[in-house]
Every structure is written in C-alpha cells, then in structure tokens.
Design goal:
This protein is of the alpha+beta class. The protein contains four helices and nine strands, in the order βαββββαββββαα.
Length: 189
C-alpha cells in the first residue's frame, strides 16, 4: 500500500490517480489538503447475474468548511463509473442535519426521503435519495445521503443505478427496514 501526502484540488485527485494509476506528489495551486492512500484492490466477486461490482481506487481524509473532518473513499464500477463515498463529521447532530438539508436544497429532484437505520433496525437519522441535474458535475448527479449522529454519509455517482446498487450492497439494512415506505416530500427547502 502506497501512502503519500499530496496537495491537489479535490476534483483533480481522482483524475490524477486514474490517469497515472499511482499517487505522485502533485500541487495545483489553492486547494484542499488531503492525506490519501492508493488501494487498488480487485473487485469483489459477485454471483448475482447483472449486479454491479465496485473496486476501491482511492481513500483519504481532508478538511472542509464547517466539518470537523471529512473522510472519502472513491470506487470504480466494473463498467467504469466512478462513485464517491464520503463521511463528513460535524460538531453536533443538529449541525449534521442542517448540512444535509442545505445540500438537498440544491437538488433538482428529491426521489425519496425516509429514516436512516442501523444494522439492528434502530433509527439513527434521516436518509434521502436525490438527483442534482446540471447543478453538479456529470459524475456526481445522483446522491444518497443520510445522517447518523454527527455524521453525514454521502454517496455520489453519475446515476441512481450506481449509488443505489452500492448502498444495497454495503448498507443492506437501509433497504430491509425501509422497504415499501419511501416518502417523497421535500425536506424544508
């Protein structure tokens, strides 16, 4: 596993990794400081015909406005789509909920909204599925977000197909407990 400290604009970080297949020391002017680990691992085997598999290509942490910490993990699907999983930690659960609502105000369409549940079926926060249209880059137009205490979990990709497949694979309890109960109201826009 290669570890390095790099200073690069967050949007250029994944592109640098995919083009060079490594993490060189790159500096591209004013940017966020990120500590990254390149972790090229094989895609997990899946026996379900037609299912989407993901390969971890990059992970790390950075500082962000308002958040006490941000950790991220980027994945590449077997057919080349990029998915980012991010956890933003805020000073309080109220601040995390406020940030999720702020993010959703920019969505073009709220697909569903319901409770976020843990592996034991307990409600830990709010969950939403949204599409952002042209307000976001093409690779980040579909999003699943949920709060869990002080954390806002964010999954972003080019389409709902990828974010929902990833969520179903790695957070199956969201689907088991919320099955049949999606709500489509707006969240205090």
């Amino acid at each position: 596993m290669l570890k390095t400290r790099i200073t690069v604009a967050r949007s250029h970080l994944l592109a640098a990794l995919l083009v060079l297949n490594t993490l060189p020391a790159i500096s591209t002017g004013p940017s966020a400081l990120a500590y990254c680990t390149s972790q090229l691992t094989p895609a997990q085997e899946n026996t379900d015909k037609g299912s989407i598999t993901f390969e971890s290509v990059l992970n790390g942490s950075m500082q962000g406005k308002g958040a006490t910490s941000i950790s991220f993990q980027d994945y590449k699907s077997h057919d080349g789509a990029i998915l980012e999983s991010r956890i933003e930690t805020y000073p309080s659960p109220n601040r995390a909920r406020a940030e999720m609502k702020r993010l959703l105000r920019h969505s073009a369409r709220l697909v569903e909204s319901n409770s976020a549940l843990d592996g034991q079926g307990r409600r830990v926060g709010d969950r939403a599925v949204a599409e952002f249209g042209k307000a976001m880059p093409p690779t980040r137009r579909a999003t699943v977000l949920w709060t869990d205490g002080r954390d806002v979990h964010i999954l972003e990709s080019s389409s709902l197909r990828y974010v929902l497949a990833f969520e179903k694979r790695y957070y199956p309890y969201h689907f088991a407990q919320n099955a049949g109960t999606p709500k489509t109201e707006k969240l205090n826009k």
